[in-house]
Write the structure tokens for this entry.
Amino acid sequence: MGIKVENLSYSYPGNQKRKPALENVSLEIARGEFAVISGTAGAGKSTLIKHFNGILTPESGRVTVDGLDTNSREVRRKVGMLFQHSQDQLFEETVYKEIAFGPSNFGIRGEELKERVYDALSLVHLDTRILNRSPFSLSGGEKRRVALAGIMALRPTYLVLDEPTAGLDPESRTKLLGRLQNIHKKGVGIIVVSHNMEEILPFAHKVISMEEGKILFTGSPEEYLRVGHSPVPLLTRLMKELNRKGANLREDIFTAEEALKELQKLRQEKEREISEKIDGTVMQENV
């Protein structure tokens, strides 16, 4: 089971003479997987994910979620979507009503509804004291978390996020990625559209790279780096540059811990070379 895309093509109305936004796209994202979709602007990333819960309907081809066609109402519960400007998704009078809207729309009432609201609020680390406030009185980061809580109250099987860290400061980005990691640990499949591979790769199981409405690459983060697709994370570029200058380091790395191990290995090798040269010089002088 999972999200399955088969020979998907799509053109926006009025753009028939231009290249299609998606052209014969096929891919699979397994249930519980953490996937990142990368590519330049206009690659078709956002158009693709809008097919995952029926916002857009295929022009040709098919998209299914756990075997269900995306015109099924159940798919809208299974696949939660958080867009880049998530504050635009807010519309209710209070934070409580905002978070409760989705599950109540699916018939959840009473204590179960209240429990879902409080669980979702806790998941995004917001205080219960804001429940009676207007969501529009909150800061930008809080609005984004309320929007995420509203999705998580549905208890989706998959969470799809379009550039979730855009516009956030470094501390807020780190906290958001930590929350996504916690959500993923609960068994929710995470699909992130992002151009910032340095942030997302350490969490990903699968990388999907797109260009001009087509899939260029699908595979693990390690394979992505070995093949040399762009964008390339900063740490990978550093390893490549050191190798060009004579080092012998792994290039398929994307975490600071892995980079540190490689640099420590390089340092040890250089220290050993220097020690051997010194020992050789001393031996010659003694002779």
